[in-house]
Amino acid sequence: GAGVSQTPSNKVTEKGKYVELRCDPISGHTALYWYRQSLGQGPEFLIYFQGTGAADDSGLPNDRFFAVRPEGSVSTLKIQRTERGDSAVYLCASSPTGTSYNEQFFGPGTRLTVL
Amino acid sequence: SQKIEQNSEALNIQEGKTATLTCNYTNYSPAYLQWYRQDPGRGPVFLLLIRENEKEKRKERLKVTFDTTLKQSLFHITASQPADSATYLCALLGFQGAQKLVFGQGTRLTINP
């Protein structure tokens, strides 16, 4: 079956611009996660959705970052006034429920480059 | 502050030998520990999960141990193959429903033929 998909695969933007990154989770998965991964580092948690609501947004670095999941499936990560330090691979993951021990299924990521 | 460290950035092993990767953590009490594999340009792929009350878990050529006293997990690949070459990440989950994975920085494993 289809895995987690993310679009675009690559995004190049200029400092100060607004970007949206999209995640399509595995069908039926209620939990959705966003992570950010810099070169040579492990993924860093940003936000977790259970259904439509953000259950934990403690990893969002500042108020320029926002994410939504209005119908409990597709999610969009939105970054305003991008900065060069936002350059990273943004990973999305989903799991069947929000149960702690569930494995998370990751998408291939969106590589964001801010010039 | 919470810290997770994987033993080295890179590890080179001869084909057929056992590769052992280490994950240490401080200021943290995880309920579960997971290991993931990540290939270049791809997202992490789940391999194994071990609970705090389990000492060891096996899956085919993989073995994971979890020592909550030492605050350490060991990940072993026996009879290693060049196809096992990848970056391996350990990830911790906390208690009381905390859902976020906290990852180590990863160890890049290369199996030489």
Low-pLDDT segments, ≥5 res of chain B: none
SSE sequence of chain B, one letter per element: EEEEEEEEEEE
Largest chain-chain contact? A-B, 28 and 27 residues
Q: Provide the β-strand percentage band of chain A.
A: over 45%
- Derived from helix and strand composition plus strand pairing, the structural class of chain B reads mainly beta
Question: Can you summarize this structure?
Answer:
The complex is a heterodimer of chains A (115) and B (113). Chain A is mainly beta and 115 residues long.
Structure characteristics:
heterodimer; A: 115 residues; mainly beta; seven-stranded mixed sheet; four-stranded antiparallel sheet; 11 strands; B: 113 residues; six-stranded mixed sheet; five-stranded antiparallel sheet
How would you summarize the topology of this molecule?
The complex is a heterodimer of chains A (115) and B (113).
Chain A: E1 5-7, E2 10-13, E3 19-24, E4 31-37, E5 44-50, E6 53-56, E7 65-68, E8 75-79, E9 88-95, E10 105-106, E11 110-114
Parallel strand pairs in A: 2-11
Antiparallel strand pairs in A: 1-3, 3-8, 4-5, 4-9, 5-6, 7-8, 9-10, 9-11
Chain B: E1 3-6, E2 10-14, E3 19-26, E4 32-38, E5 45-51, E6 56-59, E7 62-67, E8 72-77, E9 86-93, E10 102-103, E11 107-112
Parallel strand pairs in B: 2-11
Antiparallel strand pairs in B: 1-3, 3-8, 4-5, 4-9, 6-7, 7-8, 9-10, 9-11
Description:
The complex is a heterodimer of chains A (115) and B (113). Helices cover 0% and strands 48% of the residues of chain A. Chain A contains no helices and 11 strands. Chain A has strands at 5-7, 10-13, 19-24, 31-37, 44-50, 53-56, 65-68, 75-79, 88-95, 105-106, 110-114. Chain B is mostly beta strands. In chain B, 0% of the residues lie in helices and 56% in strands. Chain B has strands at residues 3-6, 10-14, 19-26, 32-38, 45-51, 56-59, 62-67, 72-77, 86-93, 102-103, 107-112. In chain B, strand 4 and strand 5 (45-51) form a beta hairpin. The mean pLDDT of chain B is 91. Classes of the chains: A mainly beta (115), B mainly beta (113). The A-B interface holds A 4, 31, 33, 35, 40-45, 48, 50, 55-56, 58-59, 91, 93, 98, 100-101, 103-109 and B 4, 9, 31-32, 34, 36, 41-46, 49, 51, 89, 91, 93, 97-106.
